[in-house]
Specification:
By secondary structure, the chain is an alpha/beta fold. It contains 29 helices and 20 strands. Strands 1-5-7-8-9-10-11 form a seven-stranded parallel beta sheet. A hairpin with a 2-residue loop joins strand 13 and strand 14. Helix 2 runs antiparallel to helix 3, helix 5 runs antiparallel to helix 6 and helix 19 packs antiparallel against helix 20. The longest helix has 24 residues.
Amino acid sequence: MTAKSAAAAARATVYGYPRQGQSRELKKAIEGYWKGRVDADALRATATELRTANWRQLAEAGIHEVPTGDFSYYDHVLDTSVMVGAIPERHRAAVEADALDGCFAMARGTQDAAPLEMTKWFDTNYHYLVPELGPDTVFTADSTKQVTELKEALALGLSARPVLVGPVTYLLLAKPAPGVAADFDPLTLLDRLLPVYAQVLADLRTAGADWVQLDEPALVQDRTPAELNAAARAYRDLGGLTERPKLLVASYFDRLGDALPVLAKAPVEGLALDFTEAAAANLDALAAVGGLPGRRLVAGVVNGRNIWVNDLEKSLAILGTLLGLADRVDVAASCSLLHVPLDTTAERDIEPQILRWLAFARQKTAEIVTLAKGLGGGTDTIAAELAANRADLASRAGSALTHDPAVRARTAAVTATDARRSQPYPERAAAQRAHLRLPLLPTTTIGSFPQTTELRTARADLRAGRIDSAGYEERIRAEIGEVISFQEKTGLDVLVHGEAERNDMVQYFAEQLTGYLATQHGWVQSYGTRYVRPPILAGDISRPEAMTVRWTTYAQSLTTKPVKGMLTGPVTMLAWSFVRDDQPLADTARQVALALRDEVNDLETAGTSVIQVDEPALRETLPLRACDHPEYLAWATEAFRLTTAGVRPDTQIHTHMCYAEFGDIVQAIDDLDADVISLEAARSHMQVARELAGHGYPREAGPGVYDIHSPRVPSTEEAAELLRTGLKAIPAERLWVNPDCGLKTRAWPETRASLENLVTAARTVRTELSAS
């Protein structure tokens, strides 16, 4: 096919779409089901309505081929585990009794069976359920979900493409099951898994699938020769099947690198590549292998992870370069649109001109369709769209919001000394012990306490004008008083104020910093039914006034025990926002760090002796390629130290991280120079404690003993046993006792019981230590 005919054949598609609905109907239906207010048939009906609405909206917008199978009640990797029969033995009976309840048990756990481990999906803030595999794993095909959803789309008269997690990525995301040797490599199960994928592909072909997409994002990471050989074998075998649909192998989030030649040689009909995060690298690599003659190339030129309008002319230039490198060039977003909100038109509080800078899922769909039209018919066919796009880009570039001379001058004046504590850790530790006088194995929580219905109602009433600010603040004071009273009665050693006034750990601060925009309906799935509204970091950042001092000092006035000041760190403020793309991330991080430094210093001046600066996103923002790690970690750790380095030696700086793989950033954790770090550890059975010990981590640490992402209450003995495991890696004088994460999403009954058990466990182990 000539470049001209390839352009004329260009079509628009997407890899996935937000699941929740305009008003988060899916979240409400699932949580209603868990509470017994919604039955299974009603939940399934809601899901069907949402899928149908999504497909129709995509088709009406001009998308030629809609995705199926990307919809999930909880997580698409969990759905893949069900599809291939990788059900942990402890959950097998539940899944066999009721597939829906069994999946929720795997995701959330039950009182008798722990859930699957949860961690971040590559370098996004989406969480997936980690498959548990071992040498005895037996895979069996169950394509019910995939076939059912395909048939639903076809019945609507749509052209549909099922989307599956690819077999290589699935195995690379997996971990050894409990009781299996830690060095077991799930990839050794590939030959056992491929026949199951073959059966699913055959089932989809029988059901009417012309194409099936197999997502292999793990191949954009550094991969060993053995892993690349496994990918070659997988697609040689799947491509060699006779009873199958055409195969589109998709990669995203970074450059494909050494895996591109492997996939280019595979007997598959198409590849999908990311031309936003790694446009130049993927272009060069594709040209180096001679393109994809006779095959389909899906070009991800619209950023599926951020919310800024596309530069249409730049994207058309990339698409034009790709013509001639493939038999057919189609246009798509760089990845699933799961990672962005649904629709900008629902936003009423953002200035209309600024709103034109933004593109959520529906606007990105329109951009994809426009680009496909322009590629196929020429720029004259989209002249009006190009002119409007140029005006929007110019408006953003020239806005006073994006450039504040005072902020830029302060940032430019930062020196290396500004990011170093005045004394080394051993001297600080002695000063803090003398000042705080905490017991062995001190107990604390991570920060937030349950956000009750009463709190959410009060917040909604304030927004709606049903109560005034004085009435709202009285409710907050009462909630803080209850939280402090509970902690004192329970016996916790370092208290928190509970964050009753905070809607979200990033949004709360973003709303008080210049340079940020907040949305009203910009919900994005984080995990399961947990949705967040990432703020939009649009311009230069500064802090007009104190953000947390008032409520922290009020809480401290209610107790003689230390109350932690609670802040979200600069890297997490970037990672959990939609960050500006018009300057280096390092520059933005430094601006945020300086604003937070002012807050830290004000907390200390107000008498706060313990200040926690959370950085749960430090690991998730780590670039996917090792060669890019040093630069990122240098500016990320500097930003944290710039935030915290201005305090006195006897002020104790804490940080917190959760739900990520920490082993490969232990040196960076060390480089933060925090006095105490708390980390998720309950689901991974204290793995992070062993990793800290292996590194020789010299400061204090609190690996979590209470998994807060499950409603189950850990027993005293369970928490005590985790503590004993932690003590094998971390000396008692440096070990803290705490939950894995904040308690915002939990209910009060389970929170009370779990924290009471946690404190009792700490006292039990203290007694054991004193007797030994």
